[in-house]
Specification:
There is one protein chain. This protein has 2 domains: 2-67, SH3 type barrels; 77-287, Fumarylacetoacetate hydrolase, domain 2. It is built from 8 helices and 19 strands. The protein has 291 residues and is of the alpha+beta class. The protein is globular. The protein has helices at 25-28, 36-41, 44-54, 85-91, 163-167, 173-176, 191-194, 223-233; strands spanning 2-8, 11-18, 21-24, 60-61, 66-67, 77-81, 100-104, 109-110, 116-118, 125-126, 129-135, 151-158, 161-162, 182-189, 201-206, 209-215, 241-243, 265-270, 274-282. Strands 1, 2, 3, 4, 5, 6, 7, 8, 11, 12, 14 and 17 form a 12-stranded mixed β-sheet that branches. Strands 9-19-18-15-16 form a 5-stranded mixed β-sheet, with no helix packed on it. Strands 10-13 form a two-stranded antiparallel sheet.
Amino acid sequence: MKLATFTESQRTRVGIVVGDGIVDLSREAPELPTEMVALLEAGPEALEAARAAADGAETLALSDVKLESPVLRPPKILAVGLNYADHVAESGMETPKLPLIFNKQSTSVTGPTDPFHMPRVSTALDYEGELGVVIGRRCRHVPRDRAAEVIAGYTVVNDVSVRDWQLRTPTWTMGKSFDTHNPMGPWIATADEVGDPHALDLKTWVNGELRQSTNTKQLIFDCFELVEHLSTAFTLEPGDVIATGTSSGVGIAMKPPKLLQVGDVVKIAIDGVGEIENTVIEEPAETTQIG
């Protein structure tokens, strides 16, 4: 099942993608929540009701709707640094003995086809294609062998990074959290849709040039280990997103570096999950806001 958040006729709600169409759950199952976090919070019964409602239902054409980030405002975005051996090598760093965790702010989220900003304070803009894990159940102290039970599904994430801001301090949150710097989508692909999350090809292109090509079997700490590790410290909640890390091929590590420029198009595809494609634009003047 592919759970999506979409906008049509100036209304944003949740649907299920079927082929080239999307089932509007607000029409087919009006008793269900119309916002993704609320739907996940409603539990497995709600998801099964959604699945049943979509069976044989009429669809809207995907070309007639706008796909949004599947989770518009994740409660937490938890990202992992240096989680592929080849990326560790190109970064000149030591392999972490424990997952290297940092936060991205929820305001960094944008949709699967929305543009993202070249900040007015930097031009050291980079891409990181990643598999995202979306939590489906409130949980704490989850053992690895039960982690699959709390995962709603998987999505594609671009952990956009402002490298000079990232590297000027030991903590990376500022350089990873600029507005629009977490394109995500195009939907949440549930486990039955994806199969083994640790056997997925992941590729990133910039302007059609293949920059990253890996498989999630290369993760140092896999999805289930990350759920176990994170839930040791704090409660994971429905809608939380774990960005599992990126492989080699990031722009900053190329010789010479190939950082992003305004007008560049970044496409990230993960087999069994989906793809996102976003264009770099100048940060608009209207982002200056004083309440």
